[in-house]
Amino acid sequence: MKQVKAEPYAWPYDGPVDPSKTALVCIDWQVDFCGPGGYVDTMGYDLKLTRAGLEPTATVLAAARAVGMTVVHTREGHLPDLSDCPPNKLWRSRRIGAGIGDSGPCGRILVKGEPGWEIVPEVAPVEGELVVDKPGKGAFYATNLDLLLRVAGVSHLIFTGITTDVCVHTTMREANDMGYECLLLEDCTGATDYGNYLSALHMVKMQGGVFGAVAPSGALLDALGSA
Amino acid sequence: MGTSPYPWPYDGDLDPRRLALVVVGAQGWWAERTVDPVGALEAVERAAKVVRDAGGGVVVVHRDGAGPPVFDGEAGDVAVRCTGMSGFAGGPLDLRLRREGLDHLAIGGLGLETALYSTMGAANDRGYECLALADAAAPHDRAAGERALSSITMSGGIFGAVGTTSDLLELLLA
Lengths: 227, 174
Description:
By secondary structure, chain A is α/β, with parallel strands linked by helices. Chain A is 35% helix and 19% strand. In chain A, the strands form two sheets. In chain A, strands 5-2-1-6-7-8 form a six-stranded parallel beta sheet, sandwiched between helices. A two-stranded antiparallel sheet of chain A has the order 3-4.
C-alpha cells in the first residue's frame, strides 16, 4: 500500500492507505438521482452528468472489497407518510414539478422502499456492507453513520457518489469537521451542472485542502496495488 | 431583483421574530483569505441593524482557533462557538436557535464557499429555511463563490434561496 497521488497533497496525510481504518463511502447512487424516471430526471437535468461516475465507481468498489475495506452505501429518502421531510423541502420539490412523495415512473419520489429509492445495480451493496438511510443531504445528520464508522475503527473516508456539490459535499464537510481524513474521487462523482461539479472539486482543494483531497480513481487503484 | 430561485421564505410573509441573521466566518482566518471582507462585513452590519430593529435575532458564530473576531455583534445578540467549518459543528448553534424560536436564517459572513456553504447545508438538513446573503458573504475566489451560489439555487433551491441584504430589507420593511 502507498499514499494516493492526490491534490493538493498525497493522501492520506498520515502515511500509506490502511484498508483496516478506511471506508469507501458511496453516496446516493439511487435511481432517483441517476436513473431514468427518477427525481433528477423528472426535474429535467441531464442524467449523463450524474451517471458519468458509475463505471469507475464499480471498479473502485471491486478493489475496495478485494482489500477488505469497509464499504458504506447511503440512500436519501423519506418515510411513506413524509413525517421526516421538512416542509420547506417538500414545498420546493413540488414547486419544481418533482414533488417528494408524488407518483412517478419509478414509484413515489424519494420515498423509502420505492423503485426510485433503490441503489442502481451497477454499484449495488453486497452482503455485509453498511447501508445508511438519511433524510437530508448530509449522511451524518439524523443517522448512525458516525457510530458505525467508529465501531468499525474507521478514521479515513474515500468518497464516490452524487451529487458532488450537494450530498457529497455536505457529507464530506460534516466528516471533515468531525476529524475524518477525506478523499474525493473526481471521476466517481457528478453534479446536475458540469461547472458546479468542477467548482465543487476545486473547493475541496482550496487553502491547502480545506475539506481534504481529490484524486482520480486510478491513483487510488495504484496505491492499493490493484491498478 | 428578488431572491432566487423562489421568493423567500417559502411559507409566506416573513415573521421577523422567527428570523435570525447568522454571521459565520467573521474572524482573522477568513479575513486573510477572502475577497473584499470589509465590503461583506459592511453589508452584514447593515443587515444586522435592520434585523435587530425588526425584532429578529443576530447570531454570531465564532470558530475555536480561527483567529480574532472581525465582527462581534452587540449586547443582546447571541454569540456561539463552533469547532468546524459548519457553524453547527461542535457547538450550541442548533440549541440556541431553537431556544430563541429562530427558524428562518439569513446567512452572511466570510468564506462563502467554506463557512457559509457548510453552515447553510447543515441548517437546511435540520429544517431551517435559509437565505444566503450574496453581498454580505465574501468568497475565497469570485468564480468559486458564484458557483456556490449556483449550487444553492439548483433543484428548486436545494439548500434554500439566494438574495441580497436589499432583498432582506425590503422583506422586513414591507
